[in-house]
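Let's do one together. I've listed all components of the complex below, 858 residues spread over two lines.
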Amino acid sequence: MQILANNPNRKSWLKVDKGSDFPIQNIPFGVFITKDDIITIGTRIGEYAIDLGAFHQLGYFNGIPLTDDLFMQDSLNDFISDGRKTWRLVRNRIAEVFEAGNSTLRDNQKHREIIIFDMDEIEMLLPVNVGDYTDFYSSKEHATNVGLMFRGKDNALMPNWLHMPVGYHGRSSSIVVSGTPIHRPCGQILPSGSSSPVFGPTQSLDMEIEMAFITTDVNNLGEPIPVDEAEEYIFGMVLFNDWSARDIQKWEYVPLGPFLGKNFASTISPWIVTMDALEPFRCESPKKEIEPLPYLQQKRTNNSFDVKLQAVIKTNNGDENLISETNFKHMYWSMSQQLAHHTVNGCNVRSGDLMGSGTISGPTKNSYGSMLELSWGGKEPLTLKDGTTRSFFNDGDTVVIRGYCENEKVNIGFGTCSGKISPPFKRKK
Amino acid sequence: MQILANNPNRKSWLKVDKGSDFPIQNIPFGVFITKDDIITIGTRIGEYAIDLGAFHQLGYFNGIPLTDDLFMQDSLNDFISDGRKTWRLVRNRIAEVFEAGNSTLRDNQKHREIIIFDMDEIEMLLPVNVGDYTDFYSSKEHATNVGLMFRGKDNALMPNWLHMPVGYHGRSSSIVVSGTPIHRPCGQILPSGSSSPVFGPTQSLDMEIEMAFITTDVNNLGEPIPVDEAEEYIFGMVLFNDWSARDIQKWEYVPLGPFLGKNFASTISPWIVTMDALEPFRCESPKKEIEPLPYLQQKRTNNSFDVKLQAVIKTNNGDENLISETNFKHMYWSMSQQLAHHTVNGCNVRSGDLMGSGTISGPTKNSYGSMLELSWGGKEPLTLKDGTTRSFFNDGDTVVIRGYCENEKVNIGFGTCSGKISPPFKRKK
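Okay, and this is what the predicted structure of the assembly comes out as:
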C-alpha cells in the first residue's frame, strides 16, 4: 500500500503557515480535551486540531474497517494496536479529505464546527497510556562523555557498549505531556569528599535531549522479533526530555542503575509523528565499529532518520537561549536494533510502550544533549543572554526541545517538548 | 474501624482443611476465569473460589458503598483504588457471610451454585494490571553475597546500601501468574577469559525468592509520602519469583543495571493477601547499622512481617527438593521505607503498582534466596534426591515458592508461586 498521505505536492484547504511543523504531509496523532471537557483522539494541520472521534462519527472514515469508538478514547493504545495497515488507511483518508480540492468537509460549515478546533481552544493530553518505558543509551558520544566524567578515561565506554544497545527500564507513571511543570526533586546527595549523604534539593537538574518511539503489540512473551521485521512494529516518534538529577543519580546508581535521579519526570511532545511521515527522511546510521552478533545485523543500512533537534532555555525575562543543536541521525544503534535486542530474550512489548533513544549528543560541543556535557560537569558554565550562567538549570527556567525534518519539498516537525522548573515541593501544614 | 475479619476464633461453613493457607481469616483477593469464560474478581476460602462479582450482584455487599461493576473486572486496580476503608468493609462482610452460624448464603443453594466454585473448576489470572514494577534490593545478606561474587570483597556492599533502600525499575509486561511456563532466555554472554560476547541460551537460569507489595494510589507527581504514612497505601502482598539469567545480567548490567537478564519473566502468586490479614504477624526488622536520614526514620519498629518462605525444585520424576528456607523478616529496609524513598523525589505511585523486596536471603547458607548464592556461583552445586546436581536450573525443572505466617491460633498463607522451565524458544519455519 502506498503512503499516499506523503505526497509532497498536496496542499490543504486549511491554512498552513510556511515552515509549519504540521503541513498536510505530517498528520500526527495525539489526544486532546476541548473546552467542553470532551476528550478525543485527534490530528493536527497547521494551527488546527482535528477531532477524529467526530470525524469518524460523521462518516469521513466510511469504508475503512474501524470500531465505532476507536477515536473517542483518552489514549491511542487501541488505534496503535490495529497495526500499520490501519494507520496508513487512516492517514491517507485524512490527507484526502483535507486536500485543497476536496469540498466534502470544506464546504460543510456545520461539520467543520464540530470537527475542527483552533489549537488555542484545546489542551493536549498524554497521547498514550505507556505500559512500559525503556530508555536506551545509544549515542556513542553521550556514553563516552558521561563515562569520562563519572568513571574516568579508562572506563569511559564500557566493554559491552559496542556489542549491544545498552538499555534499562524507566518509570512510566511520571511521563508527562509537554507543558507540565517539573518540581525540582529532593534526594540523597553525597557531598564532595564526604562518605555520608545529605538530603536536599538537587543542585544539578539536567535535561536529556532524546527522541522516543512508540510500539504496537510486538510479540508474545518468549518470542524474539528478528531485527529486519522490527520496523513493522514501530508506530511513530516523539521528542523526549528525560529530566535527570545528576547528584542524586551519581550516589544511587551503582550497582542497579539510575532510579530517583530520573524517575521524578520525563516530558514528551504531544503529537506522535508516524514512521510513515518520517519515511522521506531516512538516512544511514554511523558505521559499526565492531560487527555485532547476527541477531543485531540489519540488512537495511538507511535505518536512521535525519531529525534536527534544538534545545533552548527560556528565562523568566522571555529570552530564548539556544544551548544545543543536535540530530537523531547520530545514534549508533537503530530503533530496529533496539527492539530486536529488547525482545531477544523473549521480553514482550505491547501497544503504547515507549522506548527512549538515550541522550542524543553529536560530535561537537554545541551538539551535546545534556547540561552535564555542555557545561562539562559544571567546569564550563554556559553564559545566557541576560548575563547569568548555567551549569545546570535554575528554578524558573523553561527547557524547550524542538525537532523537525526538512527537505527541498516538505517540512515535518514534532512541535515542542517543554517544561518549566518549579521550586522543590513544600508540604502544606 | 476494627479488622473484624481477623477474629481467630471464627470458623466458616465452607470446609477448610487444617493447615490450609486460606482459612476464613485470610480472605485474599484475586482474579479468575470460570469454565464459562466469565472473568471476575474473587476471594478464596479453603479449596473454594468465591465469585465476588456474583456475590455483589446478589446483594451480599448491600450497605457498603461500592460501584455496581467493581468486582466484575479483569483486574483489582479499581477496587484497590477505593482505599483501605473499602478493603476492610469488604473483608469484614465476607467473613460475616461465610461464618459458620450465618445461614443467609449457606442455606441458599441457588446462590451457592452461582457464587462458589471448586478451585479446580477455575483458572487464576494476573490479579492486577501492573502499571510500574520496582524491584528493591533490601536484604543485606543477599546484597553482600552477590557483591562478593560479582565485585569481590572490597566492593561487596556498596557505600550507598546502608543509607537507602536501593531499587531499580523492572518490566511490567512480563509479570506472569503462577503456573505460566518460563522459556529459557537467550542473550549475549561473555565467555570466561574472552573479550567478545557469544549468543546463546543462558547457562545460569536462576530464581530470586522475593515478596512484593501492591499499592493503592499513593500521591500526585511531585509530592513525597512521609515514611510514617506509607503503610496506609499498601494493599497487600504476594510471593514473587524474579527469574534471572546471571550470565546475561553480568555482561550487560554496568552501568545502567539489569535489563535482559531479568525482564524475560517474573512470576507472582495469584492471591493478594491483604496487609490487614498480615497484621497479627508483625515483627521487628533488623536494627539499622547506620542511622538513616530523617525521611527514612520510621517511628514504628515492628514494621516487618514474619512470613516463612520455602523454595522447592520439582524434577520431572515428581520429586520435591527443598532448596531454601528463609523469611521476609530478614529484610533490612521496611516496605514503608521503600515507599518513602521511592516518592521522596516526587515520583508518583499508582493503584496496582508492584514493588519487589529484592531477593530474600537469611544469614545461613540454607536460607539464601537464589541459586547463585545457594551454589555459591556454581562452585558448590546442590545435589537433588534423584542424584543429579544443580548450580542453576535445568529445562524441565519446576520452581515453587511457598509462603505462610503462623501463630498458635491461625495460619495465613500465600499459596504457591510456581513456574516450569521450558527450552529456549524456536521460531516456526
